[in-house]
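Hey, I'm writing a tutorial for new members on how sequence and structure tokens pair up, and I'd like a real worked example in the thread rather than a made-up one. If someone can provide the structure for the chain below, I'll link this post from the tutorial.
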Amino acid sequence: MPLPLPKTYAPMEAQPAEELPHGPAWHYEPKWDGFRCIAFRDGDRVDLESKSGKPLTRYFPELVNSLLKNRAKKFVLDGEIVIPIDGNLSFDHLLMRIHPAASRIAKLSNETPSVFIVFDLLVDPAGKQLTNSSLRDRRRALEAFAKKFLPKGGSVRLSPLTKDVAIARKWFHMGIGLDGVVAKRDDLPYQTGERTGMQKIKKKRTADCVVGGFRYLEKKKLVGSLLLGLFDKQGLLNHVGYTSSIHDDERAALTKRLEKLIKPPGFTGKAPGGPSRWSTKHSMEWEPLEPRLVVEVQFDHFTGGRFRHGTAFLRWRPEKRPSECTMKQVERESRSALNLL
């Protein structure tokens, strides 16, 4: 008699690495730019769980319906939720789903349906737990599951893998939709909540940006963050993010340098936003600067016209003209990662 379906899993996670590992025990998979998700199906119930253990079920009703229609009545799948838009994957549309209004979620689920890309099978349709099996055996079971239960081109799809490091390198340089490559040892079991036997090699990208403004620290009149801008095709300087990786021993001198350049408007296109429910009035106040200073920063994602996270300050670029800091730097290669599925 099969054991009851587990209520939750802490996903196996990857250790950051600089280079793809080599060796016969390693295989490689695309690192999809989406929401990590564990999907549970037990009879008439489907639950979607995020990497941190939070429920995702209500945000992706179309995926729940698709999993309920699957002929397999019991399984646990590990994968990534993505949303295809115009042949590419859009992280911004994923973020739009995390909304309190059910009517809004229903509308978006019809307009921009999600796809679940699966890369591991933790419980098979017979109710057998596979987490103690090697990845090699789990992958074999997952491929058999996909062949039997996942129609080609459907909303639940099998993620590709390769043992060829040359192919993995091609994936690494592919365009929109991939965040890098994941390397996994195929002789190890599923190590729930651990970061061993699995490595992620993420893309590192840089851009030269105009410093269009800055914010003070909350309790000291010293620079806390630099506000970054890029010029669009119309020649407008748009706010695209910030960097706060400033050494403490450099703040006083940098503050004096910046205060000499304070001059409105700072940004001639999109400007930094005002206070929101997540921020205070003080934390959102900023000082506009003449567009004279250029910095090089490192970033991971650029979506929706801005850096998704804070950037890492690399160096000042005094030799760079501000007019050279354009949006072209952050445009991605046009090949879609969806072609891999």
